[in-house]
Amino acid sequence: MKKLITAALLLAVSAGMAQSNLQEKRLQYAKIAESGTKAEKEALAQELFKLAKSAKDEGDLIFASNFIYQLGHENSADSIRKEVIRKFPKGVTARDAYVTGFYDLESTEEKEKRFKSWVKKWPMEKAEGDKLSYDYIIAALARAFAQEGEKEKALSYVEQMNERFWRAQGYIPVATSFLQQGDTAAAIPLIQTAIDDAEYYINLPKEQKDNKAGFAAVGYPGYVGQLAEIYNAQGRQTEALELIERAIALTPEQAPRFSSSYFKGLEASGRKLEALQQLEILYKQGTFGYKDKMTELYTELNGSGQGLAAYFTRLDQDVVKAICDHIKEMEVYKPAPAFELLNLKGEKVSLASLKGKVVVLDFWATWCQPCIRSFPGMQAAQAMYAEDDAVQFLFINTWERDAAYKTNVPAFIEKNGYPFEVLYDDQKDPDTGEVLAAKYGVRGIPAKFIIDKEGNIRYFLTGSTPNVDYIKLEMRELIEAAKKPYKR
């Protein structure tokens, strides 16, 4: 018995060391892939090719192919993945490849048939620890059936979802479809479940919170707002207010995200001063669509519109001040990496040729929804400087996943009527093997850089907002600041 216990302990220690070593390797390889020299990258690639040839385990092959892809050997990585599927026909890679194309199928019936065939070959109960892949497909099927009015089928699929931290991604689209069809009774339990799931993770002790908990909590204000809207429409203002005020008490740091729903409940309950205060919060965040409602509430509370112009002037000053404070966090000062890329017409555009201008770079991709959401605002910002020859906007198309990107990108731009100067970020540096996004340190898109007339990066910002007016204000402050000499 003692020998068995000792063997078990040794096995556990060995497994722990193996996991630790793998993590160390992953970090080491990631560092080389991101910022290593050309020689270091090539040496790593050769090491990974050897690993791929000798590997007996699917995980090792996937590990090798992922890093080989990151190092710029896309074709080799694809070949290794094909070999993985051949060697491990019941493995994870083969499983995921089998369902590839699911979203391209035209009918929901075809999608359901593909899904059923998939789970028959790779049962969910055998995918312990890896059920999120199934949830993606289940959520898509549930949404498709809901949109087609197949209520029972939609509900049967959402009930099959596995991961509690993620299942709101299936529940909420289905609930939204039900609401659009006028079936509020079917929608409310789904939204309530999404709220309950988020609150479960929000209420976890700090030491138990992880990335899953963070993800689950992100949509919480939206779920609460959606249910509050329903309650308000049903005349259940008291319940709507209780719901929102409870949510604010639970997540006070997210209070501004509840303002849109909160003001409606406050107004309906006759708490008009508080309703106006919530609209002021939204206004200062750059949401200007409620200006008419603010005018109405201001006039009602004050008995007249006297002082209204000064009131909005003060709010506008607060908005600009908040933006100025915000852009200080984005401030940098370093030489912008040089580039020479092709535009949609096949013409070369270089940073050097634009010296003397403030240049706005916007890194984006056709699959990136946050990028696309910001485009109307970026279009409006570009229009502000249409007559200013000292400012140039460049939209750097990067990280495209489809080999036919040189067809897809121009089609996307033309379809949406964007008057953008688009450059393809597909020229790898001969020394480092990096594309421009990597040279600029881009780790997520959209990513925007404001470069001054001397060729120095002055501001770097990531993320997006769909708010056109806010983007215009923000871009104006960034560009005008970059026009001025840098103060150390």
Automatic annotation (TrEMBL):
Keyword Electron transport (UniProt): no
TPR repeat extents: 221-254
PROSITE patterns: THIOREDOXIN_2 (PS51352), TPR (PS50005)
Keywords: Signal, TPR repeat
Example GO BP: response to stress
Keyword field contains Signal: yes
Signal sequence region: 1-18
Domain of life: Bacteria
Residues of the Thioredoxin domain: 330-484
Sections of the chain in a coiled coil: none
InterPro entries: AhpC/TSA, Thioredoxin-like_sf, Thioredoxin_domain, Thioredoxin_ResA/DsbE_sf, TPR-like_helical_dom_sf, TPR_rpt
GO molecular function, one term: antioxidant activity
A Pfam family hit: TPR_7
Designated name of the protein: Peroxiredoxin
Organism, scientific name: Sphingobacterium allocomposti
